[in-house]
Design brief:
Oligomer: homodimer
Helix content of chain A: 40-55%
Largest sheet of chain A: 8 strands, parallel
Number of strands of chain A: 11
């Protein structure tokens, strides 16, 4: 069997300047400067999801975070192929949703817009990053052009990118990233696939982490279905150098999740999660509701390109929310969401570290027991 | 956070009478008495997949295994709802496959049969189990009737059952099973869902293991995407008391896999896996080939019920195999199949144990490093 690069390695922690192997997932729309700063203050890596921000609002969030912590944090950008507008498809999608708008007393927008720009083409965002120089920048949905990568690296910024397959991870490595986020199918929120129209094998975190540890020379960050210290210990056992948790941080006091989102996440009778394109136009995992169901009906027209579809959903869910209806909301959640617990982020990171220590200790204890038991079993056979 | 039942616990190992926390997945059609006996001799739990066997052929395989080892092993039975025949649907499926049969110089069968009986209704199989009394019996696709469970328990047999969700695991617990196999979406072969027509959230092993450890009081056996000692260490870190590996054992000398299957599994350029109903009528994960593609085409008719569809695929793949064509074969494989390595089963179990020890040791080392690094980081902040 091949060696396990990474497992007894803290290179990544040193490179990121963090004390514990815990990364808060960026989560555009859910993360806040307060959340990112709290996680970084607690020794992990806090993150800001800036994929939906303009260069100027992104700059403000970075400065707000800096005002709260002197420690390193991560800012995440979306590198999707810019949307292909299709007026006919967008009109058909709006027509399909018209009755839903009516049911919440609203009128559908006349047209749908590409509500935010890919970092691929956003030069203002890139210049802002070079000026602000956050310690870490991470990419989702693909990789930026080589020139942007070179300029960020020259600015001393540590670069991460998401991969959902070994093929994507090999491209991440070839592009010169410092580490790869192995995003398993369990993960909540947007799936980081480079091309949403290619076949997606949907690889689980357990398999993907191991495939990337064995198949690349990059430090691996495991993501998807990890909610507690036992999950982090499992990620490290697989050879990851850190674990990235999203859903676990949604329930934190400092997140931007509204009360309906928190209630849905923490409900006693938990809704199943589902992978849907109906909300944004790209596959993303969230708690099933009327909006995700609308994407699954047989008479559903093709969903507009990302993020054009998101413009419709944001209008619909805002109108519904005004009536106390959360059935069209993007309640992103991973498959282990039922394990979420509400608490301040610093307390969560401290609990994760305690649990991680306990899990590693318990693994040693169980090994000692089965080694002893094994000797017993072997002796019984000999006797 | 709740406690982690199981993690420093070897109850399950004692109950199963095994020395190391490794179970070879049953794999009907792939497992053999030689494979099961070799795994049990090495201190794990070998398994026979008897779901496709008659009572008498199952008895023979149990006796053949007993002739090779005095140690405990597991026999697996299928508990699916008996097939609903639908002559019209079966004729349409055969008509759809007619050109494929022709392409390999064969004629489709005139009709399709229910090629094996569910343990739900197989009284002869049940009586054979009560007579032969294997140490462990495991169930897939659901649970047998209460009377059969009571009689097996009265015979002193340890009982296991597969669950793919917390809801199924709660039914496994309520039925009085001794442990639950948490089968994640990564797993190769047939998915153990109780009802293939219900919505399947497709939960990954990382999330599912944790949900079942937290949500049931049963010992949990993690399965899906586990190929090496690092994966077993991760399963134990999640609170599982053992790991079940299937694909890793397909490549063993003692398995019944034919040379085309071995070649496909060990190929340098690895095919993706896919979840298909086209082979057997129930969802199962295998290497993508022409047969799995046929199930995905838009003009594909509804696939006959399990195991009726399997009758067609077995005829087609046998005819193709005679011409050296493996494009219709059931090459079951999990999502981490690329990590498979060919070797005798006893050698594989020994390697897994060595790797497991290394992984636990490496986790301790990495913890020591980040604790030290953490003190350093904290001191740097104080200074």
């Amino acid at each position: 069997m091949k060696s396990r690069p990474g497992i007894d390695d803290v290179r990544l922690l040193e490179r990121l300047g963090i004390a514990v192997p815990i990364i808060q997932a960026p989560m555009a729309g859910v993360s806040t400067p307060a959340l990112a700063a709290a996680v970084s203050e607690a020794g992990g890596l806090g993150s800001l999801g800036l994929g939906a921000a303009t260069a100027e609002s992104a700059r403000t969030m970075i400065r707000q975070t800096r005002a709260l912590t002197a420690k390193p944090f991560n800012v995440n950008l979306f590198c999707h192929r810019p949307a292909k507008a299709n007026a006919q498809a967008e009109a058909a999608w709006l027509a399909y949703l018209a009755m839903e708008f009516r049911s919440v007393g609203a009128t559908p927008p006349a047209v749908l817009r590409e509500i935010y720009q890919s970092y691929q083409t956003d030069e203002a965002m890139h210049q802002m990053l070079l000026e602000e120089r956050p310690a870490v920048v991470s990419f989702h949905f693909g990789l930026p052009p080589a020139r942007k990568i070179a300029e960020l690296k020259a600015a001393g910024i540590v670069l991460l990118a998401t991969a959902t397959s070994l093929q994507e991870a090999q491209r991440v490595q070839a592009a010169g990233m410092d580490a790869v986020v192995a995003q398993g199918i369990e993960a909540g929120g947007h799936r980081g696939v480079f091309d949403p129209n290619e076949l997606d094998e949907g690889i689980g975190t357990m398999a993907l982490t191991r495939l990337l540890v064995q198949g690349t020379s990059l430090p691996v960050i495991a993501a998807g279905g990890i909610m507690d210290g036992a999950g982090i210990a499992a990620a490290l056992a697989l050879g990851a150098q850190a674990a990235q948790l999203g859903t676990a941080f949604v329930a934190c006091t400092e997140s931007a999740a509204d009360s309906a989102y928190r209630q849905a996440l923490l409900a006693d009778t938990h809704r199943a999660t589902t992978m849907t394109r109906a909300i944004s136009g790209r596959p993303a995992r969230g708690l099933a509701n009327r909006m995700t169901m609308l994407g699954e009906l047989l008479d559903a027209p093709p969903i507009p390109d990302y993020p054009i579809a998101y413009d419709a959903e944001k209008a619909l869910s805002a109108a519904a929310k005004a009536k106390g209806n959360a059935e069209y909301a993007a309640h992103w959640a991973g498959q282990a969401a039922a394990l979420a617990q509400p608490m301040p982020a610093q307390q969560l990171v401290a609990a994760l570290v305690t649990e991680l220590r306990c899990s590693i200790g318990a693994l040693r204890d169980v090994q000692a027991k089965w080694e002893e038991h094994r000797v017993g079993a072997v002796e019984a056979v000999i006797a």
